[in-house]
Specification:
InterPro entries: VanZ-like (IPR006976). By secondary structure, this protein is mostly helical. About 60% of the residues lie in helices and about 0% in strands.
Length: about 150
Amino acid sequence: MTYRKLVASTTFWVALTILIFMALKSSPNSQLFPGADKFYHWLGFSILVFTAHIAFPKAPLRSLFIWTLIGAAAIEVLQSMTPGRTASLADMTVNIIGVLTGLTAIHLYGDAMGKPAQWRKAPRKRRRRRHRRTTNGVSASGGDAQ
């Protein structure tokens, strides 16, 4: 693993760990300003999607989108089970907006680097089948060649 890949992967896992810890700790985060909770949700998921793309550049963006939405929903469900925390549709909406912001940042980053992001895997090139040569009118499989 190259140094760049190691740093990218570590950054993603640290971001994921911080996001899960902050989302599931029993006391809510301190409010620096009104609506700070929504800002934290937005920022956390924006950073998570962006770092996931940097750590796993070959992963299709569609997969990142789906998996982060599943993770966001799972965190909201787990928050409803955590003492002192509640799940809310508003938080889930902000999570989705954060994911979309992260995907937008990926596109802007890709455009700046000259590497467009992929929404799906590139199609595989099909191999051309080679037909077995026939010798003396008999195919390699033993039947008559026509």
